[in-house]
């Protein structure tokens, strides 16, 4: 069959009305496909739009130290990689280390993740170093009962820098810190004049006053209210500026790692001092009683933890030398005749070393008055108890070393024993000092009788009869 005939047969098989409707059907299908493509191109992906907003929550409570730096930098990295809408930092601090504060502020200013700092909960404060963290936030919030301010640099012992390093150094530290405060406040559009006053005059304000002075952006009683009030605020600068969308966001807490918890625990100078003293005690006990293993291992572990703590707390090297000297003198008391002078000198070195262990005089290192101050219960009782214990051990060792020799032949004379056989002028056997000896006696001694050694010749002891239980 030719092609023409096939076409005519096909046209004849299809009804005329159906043939007329075919062009309309094709046009409808083409229009529907075009509309579907246009809709698919214009609509965003469904999954990101449907995903609820999340914020990461970190908590800083206590002095700002190197451990705080590690914790907050890790939280910022987690917020960035986890696509969180913001990082919320709940802050309650009396102050902290200047170097650590600068590191945190630099990280907050450089990150792409919006940072919200909330000074809370009730009664919280953003003192000293906390002022800079609050000023550096994209959104600064405060609990109604919180306060902020008093950022004048002082030493760790709470004294003015001028008392420790002189007026010139104090002025340099103050000017540098004031300029730092102004620059951070200006970068976030906050009250730079007040920030400088907080450094130079140690001014402190309540939450409502901070809001009025444009130091804080909002006042909120809890994190949910913080997010609700922060929603829609502009964050970022230039091309990266955008509106913050965090109202009703899910709050996920950021838990510190074991390492970060350990650094936070070791950041207490009292803990570090006790670890140092206990570590030295363990090493000293190992010297007194070699082979015990446990005291030496425990002491070494405590010293390791103390050295870790030195990463976040400034330590006076001279004080460490004093502590080592004190332990050395107490150990020497057991081996030299010093009539107790070495022990007394060692105890004095331990007390003085503990007293000056933490370096509280470095200018500008610490904002918090007394943040590094050791407790009197650590300065006096702990090294004193350690000195008494080591002195007692040294006295016992010295007493044993100076006692008459009780081993070998001289140690057998006068010792009590038991006749294992009949002993006479010829020969016999006796049990003395846990050992079996050849024995002889001028007078016959029956088997099982108590004997006392009067002389030793080689491997033979000369014994006499003794009353049972006496020697």
Produce the secondary structure layout.
Elements: H1 3-13, H2 16-42, H3 46-50, E1 54-61, H4 66-81, E2 86-92, H5 98-110, E3 115-119, E4 125-127, H6 129-135, E5 139-142, E6 147-149, H7 161-165, H8 167-187, H9 192-200, E7 204-206, H10 207-212, E8 218-219, H11 223-230, E9 234-235, E10 242-243, E11 250-253, H12 258-266, H13 269-288, H14 294-309, H15 317-332, H16 341-355, H17 376-379, H18 381-402, H19 408-412, E12 416-419, E13 428-432, E14 435-440, E15 450-457, E16 460-465
Parallel strand pairs: 1-2, 1-11, 2-3, 3-5, 4-6, 5-8, 14-16
Antiparallel strand pairs: 6-7, 9-10, 12-13, 12-15, 13-14, 15-16
Helix pairs in contact: 4-5, 4-12, 5-6, 8-9, 13-14, 13-15, 13-18, 15-16, 15-18, 16-18
Subcellular location: Membrane
Domain NfeD1b N-terminal: 60-231
Transmembrane segments: 262-285, 319-336, 341-358, 378-398
Number of domains: 4
Query: Any idea what the shape is?
Result: elongated
Report the CATH C-level class of the largest domain: Alpha Beta
Average predicted confidence as pLDDT: 80
InterPro entries: ClpP/crotonase-like_dom_sf, Membrane_assoc_protease, NA-bd_OB-fold, NfeD-like_C, NfeD1b_N, NfeD_membrane
Pfam families: NfeD, NfeD1b_N, NfeD_membrane
Subcellular location: Membrane
Membrane topology: Multi-pass membrane protein
